[in-house]
Design brief:
Largest sheet of chain A: 6 strands, mixed
Helix content of chain A: 10-25%
Strand order of the largest sheet of chain A: 6-7-8-3-9-10
Radius of gyration of chain B: 23 Å
Oligomer: heterodimer
Radius of gyration of chain A: 24 Å
Largest sheet of chain B: none
Strand content of chain B: under 5%
Distance between the termini of chain B: 32 Å
Structural class of chain B: mainly alpha
Shape of chain B: globular
Number of strands of chain A: 18
Helix content of chain B: over 70%
Number of helices of chain A: 9
Number of helices of chain B: 24
Strand content of chain A: 35-45%
């Protein structure tokens, strides 16, 4: 079922400490796709999930699953599954009993539990207890448990944040496959932009309880609606410039713009747009090199204007060292925002 | 949730509430006359003096004991810890019985104060020892590097940090002494509890009994308020970072003195009472013991205690859930109602329930129900404390997960929360059961005709100086009381 959230507002706290944390949030996730809500901590993304699950009261707005209005329904009647942050497996039940928890008695005796454990690639673990599982296994059991009653929507609350980096990618892939196989609509909440960009069909950027932008990961990355979003989603290089219609003048030359702009602007470009060139370019000096194996992120200061810090993503092998003098050039086009520079 | 917790909280407030109602309805002139009698003032002064003396005595014994067992490198540390806990296994009236049965002349203020102090010292020793174990040694170390000698560190750094724990323990000792009925009557030192009982049983003056109860409750609330005031002024305890306390490198002389002190305390509080009971048992049992009677009263003690604990747990669970899960103003008030049993003495609860059953439900007067209900209200705090922390330790995420898997609130509570918290809930229930099994004054007032518990048997046999016949009951009570002491000692090992 598609999930629709329509101008939802919510508050937390009691009495005088009441505070609005969600302001008119609207979004739509199509049937069988995965939406990722990306926002810094405190942006209200966990509250949004809890509202959809019915675990948190809303002030106004509507939540619909397909044609069903979920307003006023208690969580147990919403058919919305939840995978909590660290899995939250019931410690007094085995893996099998955990997965069977939401199933009716006669389904419990069928092969459903085994099928689900196979789906999350953990066959044969049904008799284990949660404390005998690794973090990645526990997370996948939590997903199997949430999927067991065939919910229309599954919510994942920072599901991979407790896993170490190498495991995270693998578990993420397994979760995505399990969701796709069951055709379940899902929303994942995260503050990790790499995770959000890699897993989502649709990205919802949230800050201070408001939706900043909704779009495909490519759209949000390539065409952020404002400077904050551009800096929050992905690495960004920011520098001042002066717009002259379709071109902008900056300390690293005269660049073509995606959208025309006039006057003082802030220019945003991605580190992969910065090239180290032989021959004519803007002189710069290497400040530091972050080496990642497959590529490297090189921080540079402009020789003519040392206040401006430029990052360049360079494919390996990288032989640059701190202090090296290089020439850089930027691959157009770049983005320009009229609003003054802000910190994310 | 608030609604579900309101009912048990109101039930817990019945004894005190009904007493107040009863007082407000009685003839004001008679009431004032009862309050201003010289005898009433004397009883109040006796109660106050005894409670304060016992509280101070417990501090004088408990704080040094706690310091010795946590800070000195004594041989056999587990033994000293156990000896410091064991007095809890001897109900104060059993200790009093042992002394009186051996030396029948013992009576009056100082012997009563001494016996109650020895019995209550663990109330100070245990929390102070826990505070000392958890107290971060970094503060003491910092003070030493700033030029303070060990005595100054003790005075300026360590004592202020353990003051809240010591004050809480002293409050428990004072409240226990104020509510104590068995020991003061056995040692023939008239206090308010004794006065309430005498007015009720002897002279059948119910207005006087109610007036004395009111004074008793007022004193108890004064103690609680005093402790709260002290706590507010004391430095707030900072969470320890888990650093091991440095053990004082005391000289052999200090350690010898400490061991001597611990041995003397243990001998007076455990050795002599237990020894006296055992000797008496080997001497006089064959002649005086009536086995069927002992078996019967043991069975009713167990049955009544368990039933009372079941009521206490039933009342505690909604309040515990509310207190652990939803912090609110109303929840705080409901919770403090539940703690009334801590403050209102058993003799007052007994008296009030006599009034209540006679006036509101005469069919329940002198029935098992009234007695079990009194146990439930009196020992609700014991069940509540442990249930609340057990429920608080269940991660809320588990409940959220259960709700999204299709379980309602109640089903979630039953299948997830309660299932995980059950050890803590059971421990609270056990504590309530064992405490109920030792209860004396309310049992004396409320027990149905023909039903005796171990405590009432001991009481009646001592009253007619049948010490030999009373001894098996005293020993049975020690066995019952050892159970929570055993658990307390075990939890003390891992603070």
């Amino acid at each position: 079922m598609s999930l629709v959230v329509d101008s939802l507002s919510a508050e937390v706290g009691d009495g005088r400490e009441r505070k609005r944390v969600l302001h008119d949030v609207s979004l739509r996730i199509e049937t069988g796709t995965l939406g990722a809500v990306l926002g810094p901590s405190g942006s209200g993304k966990s509250t949004l999930l809890r509202c959809i699950a019915g675990l948190h009261g809303t002030v106004s707005g509507a939540i619909r699953s397909g044609s069903r209005d979920l307003r006023g329904l208690p969580p147990e009647r919403r058919r919305v599954g939840l995978v909590p942050q660290d899995g939250a497996l019931f410690p007094h039940l085995t893996v099998g009993e955990n997965v069977a928890f939401g199933l009716s008695k006669h389904i419990r005796r069928s092969r459903r539990v085994d099928d689900l454990l196979e789906l999350v690639e953990l066959p044969g673990l049904a008799s284990r207890y949660p404390h005998e599982l690794s973090g990645g296994q526990a997370q996948r059991v939590a997903l199997a448990r949430a999927l067991a009653p065939s919910p229309e929507v599954v919510l994942l609350d920072e599901p991979f944040s407790a896993l170490d980096a190498t495991l995270r990618a693998a578990v993420r892939e397994q979760v995505r496959r399990a969701l796709a196989e069951t055709g379940t609509t899902a929303i994942l909440v995260t503050h990790d932009q790499t995770e959000a960009l890699s897993i989502a069909d649709r990205l919802i950027v949230l800050s201070d309880g408001r939706v900043r932008q909704i779009g495909s990961p490519q759209e949000v990355y390539q065409r952020p609606v404002d400077l904050w979003t551009g800096q929050f989603v992905g690495e960004a290089v920011v520098l001042p410039g002066r717009g002259e219609g379709s071109r902008v003048t900056t300390a690293i030359g005269d660049l073509r713009l995606v959208d025309p702009a006039v006057g003082a602007v802030t220019v945003l470009l991605r580190p992969e747009q910065v090239r180290i060139v032989e021959g004519p370019g803007t002189p710069a000096r290497v400040v530091s090199v972050d080496y990642f194996g497959h590529d490297a992120l090189v921080d540079l200061d402009l020789v003519a204007d040392p206040g401006i810090r430029i990052s360049a993503r360079l494919a390996a092998p990288v032989s640059l060292r701190e202090g090296d003098a290089v020439q850089i050039r930027v691959a157009d086009p770049v983005l320009a925002f009229v609003a003054p520079r802000q910190d994310p | 949730m608030v609604v579900a917790a309101t009912l048990p909280a109101l039930v817990a407030a019945i004894p005190l509430g009904y007493l107040v109602l009863r007082l407000s309805q009685s003839d004001p002139e008679r009431l004032i006359a009862s309050l201003w009698r010289a005898r009433t003032l004397e009883l109040a002064a006796n109660s106050l003096g005894l409670s304060v003396t016992v509280a101070v005595g417990c501090l004088l014994i408990g704080v040094p004991t706690a310091w010795a067992i946590t800070r000195l490198k004594l041989p056999a540390p587990a033994l000293w810890r156990a000896l410091a806990t064991l007095p809890l296994a001897i109900p104060s009236y059993v200790a009093a019985f042992a002394w009186v049965a051996t030396w029948p002349g013992i009576s009056g203020f100082w012997p009563t104060a001494a016996i109650l102090t020895l019995a209550c010292a663990p109330y100070v020793t245990l929390p102070v020892a826990a505070a000392l174990t958890m107290a971060d040694s970094r503060y003491a170390d910092a003070a030493r590097t700033l030029g303070a000698n060990p005595a100054r560190v003790l005075l300026r750094v360590t004592l202020p940090r353990i003051a809240p724990a010591a004050a809480a323990g002293a409050l428990l000792a004072a409240l226990y002494t104020l509510a104590d009925f068995g020991a003061v009557s056995l040692l023939r030192y008239p206090t308010l509890t004794w006065g309430v009982h005498a007015a009720f049983e002897g002279s059948l003056d119910r207005v006087l009994a109610a007036a004395l109860s009111a004074v008793l409750v007022a004193l108890a609330f004064v103690f609680v308020a005093g402790e709260q005031l002290m706590r507010r002024r004391a430095a707030r305890a900072v969470a320890a970072t888990g650093a091991e306390p440095t053990l004082a490198t005391a000289g052999a002389r200090t350690r010898a003195a400490a061991i001597a002190g611990l041995v003397v305390t243990a001998a007076l509080s455990i050795g002599i009472p237990l020894g006296a009971l055992v000797i008496r048992l080997t001497l006089g049992v064959d002649r005086d013991l009536e086995w069927p009677r002992l078996a019967e009263s043991t069975a009713s003690t167990l049955g009544l205690g368990l039933a009372g604990a079941a009521i206490a747990v039933l009342l505690a669970l909604p309040i515990a859930t509310l207190a652990a899960r939803y912090r609110s103003f109303v929840g705080g008030i409901l919770e403090s109602f539940a703690y009334l049993g801590h403050v209102v003495p058993g003799v007052v609860v007994g008296l009030s329930l006599v009034f209540f059953t006679l006036a509101v439900a005469p069919a329940l007067y002198q029935t098992v129900f009234a007695l079990v209900f009194a146990y439930g209200v009196l020992f609700l705090p014991k069940a509540l404390g442990s249930s609340r922390s057990a429920i608080r330790n269940v991660p809320p995420a588990l409940e959220d997960a259960a709700r999204t898997l299709g379980l309602g609130r109640l089903a979630t509570w039953w299948r997830v929360t309660a299932r995980i918290a059950i050890p803590g809930i059971a421990a609270g229930g056990l504590l309530a059961a064992v405490t109920a099994m030792k209860e004396l004054p309310a049992t004396l007032m409320l027990r149905p005709i023909g039903i005796e518990t171990l405590a009432t048997e001991l009481w009646q046999k001592t009253a007619i100086a049948a010490y030999g016949a009373a001894t098996p009951y005293a020993i049975a009570l020690v066995i019952v009381a050892s159970i929570p002491a055993f658990f307390l000692a075990r939890s003390g090992d891992r603070p």
